[in-house]
Each structure stands twice: as C-alpha cells, then as structure tokens.
Amino acid sequence: MLTVRAVAGKGLGVFAAKPISRGTRILADRALITLSPSDPTGSIVHQYRSIPSAKLKSLLSLSINTTKFGVLSWLEALWQSRSAPHLQPATHGIINIFRNNNFDIGNGVQALFPNVARINHSCVPNAQGNFNTNIDAFTIHATRDIEHDEEITISYLPENLTVRDPRLAMLAEKYNFLCACPACSGERADVSEERRMALHRQLMSFNEAHSKHDADLIDEGEFLEKSFETSLAMLETYEAEGIRGREVATMMINVATLASKLGKSQQARQLALKGLQLDEDAVGKDSEFYENSRKEVEVLLLKLRK
C-alpha cells in the first residue's frame, strides 16, 4: 500500500502505492521507545540499546533538529554513556531523534513510532494519526480518498485553522523546517489565508460582542444562535480547506448538540451522523475515541426522537 522515497526539501516521504479510500487504516505502528514524565532521559538510551539490530538502521535514519543538537544533549549523552564511551555518538543521536520524532500519546507520555515518523506534515493533510489504546498502536487513517503516488501527510499542529505566520513559526521552532504545503505556498496559499483570516475576524467579532457585557445580561437564545452560526462558519472553512479528522468530527457533534437546543432537529441529526462518520474515518471503529463519539451521538439521537 505504501512506498518510501526521497522528497525534495523534505528528506524521505511516504507515498500511496495504490489508490487509498477514505477511512482506510494505512498504518498501525507500535512504539520503539516511550518516555513518561517520571522517566529520566537515560531511559531513551536504555531502550535504544535493546532494539533489535534489524530495526536500528531505519530508526537512526530519522530526522534530527539541528537547532536542538546542542550542549544539553551532548551532556546527557556523555552522562548516559559514561560506562560505554564507544556508544556516545549514537547515544547523542538517538536522544535528538527521539525529541524530533516523538508523539504525545496522552498523560504526558511521549513515544517514537518508526513508520509514522516517516510521514511528513501538511497544513491540509490527507490523513490523520491517533494513538489507539485498545490495540496499543499509533494508527494512520486516510481522511479523504488518496490517489496513487500521492504523498501521505498528517498535520503536526494541534489546531488546523491557524493562519499562516503562526503556523510557519511553530513548525520552524519545533521541527526546524519551512512548510511549503498548498496552504503555505503556491497558487492556493493566498486564497487559503484569506479564508482563514476571514474566519478569525468573525471569531474575534463574536468574542468581543459577548465579552463586553455581564453574562447575566446576555440573552441566552441570541447567544446560542450566534454560537451556532459561528460554529457553522468554522465547519464551512474546514470543508473549503479540505480538512477532516477528529477535530472536525468532535466540533460537528458539538454543533449538532447546539442545533438540538435551538430546535433544529433535522440539522442536528445530519450534523451528528456526519460527525460520527468523520470520526470513524479518522480513528476506526476499534478506537475509544470513536466509541465515545458513538455513545454521545446515540444519546443525542434518542433525545431528538422524543
């Protein structure tokens, strides 16, 4: 299903070896190294030394962030390698590789998944990654249909509708690269930026309008209606940008709940079911995230029938 090859300006990338349908689980990757908040950095080194040699070459070829390849990691490596000086260079490298390629899988635990780490970033990704606790693996699902030979991308950002300059700054700071995805450069970028800026102006206007007065003085019905309109604008922007996944699914289900409070039963039902489908596409039915969404939607649909 996948091939790995060089990408100009990115190093290696993961590509579809055949067409991939929306909702397909592309990868289910298990962690090679994990680090909990209470673990010392040396835990990275100890786990690294126990990795089978067959997996080491691929692991050591992962990217490093040269801006973080400094004195601190050298000192850590020297300290951890004091009993085996000949391992020091590799030790130094693995600490940096872990820092630049790990994912937060919850409760402050960081983990490195060697195959997932090959997947490059896009601000308009065609796939999404999530840690599935039920199978103890980090999964990648196609959030839209992916064409043969198209690069598979995920978003490294916590929020997908950020405007361009903050996005670029965050990616440069944390991952040491300048994003050149369609939302950041090329013909589509200016249209994308204006769309996102328009949404941010609308959000700021909404916040200002409802923060000037005491909460007790705000008409609840009017507030709910404006919240609903603003939320729909966000969903429309996601749709226009081609962004799907858990973030959008969760928001859609929340907006469905809002619609039900406003008596918009048909719209609430449509939003809830669409949100649940997006969640299934992004995480799979065996994920606890999907199970939680399914229960929430079931409760909402039951209320709408009454």
UniProtKB/TrEMBL annotation:
Q: Which SMART domains match?
A: SET
The organism's place on the tree of life at top rank: Eukaryota
Question: This chain belongs to which protein, by name?
Answer: SET domain-containing protein
What's a Pfam family in this record? Answer: SET
Positions of the SET domain: 1-157
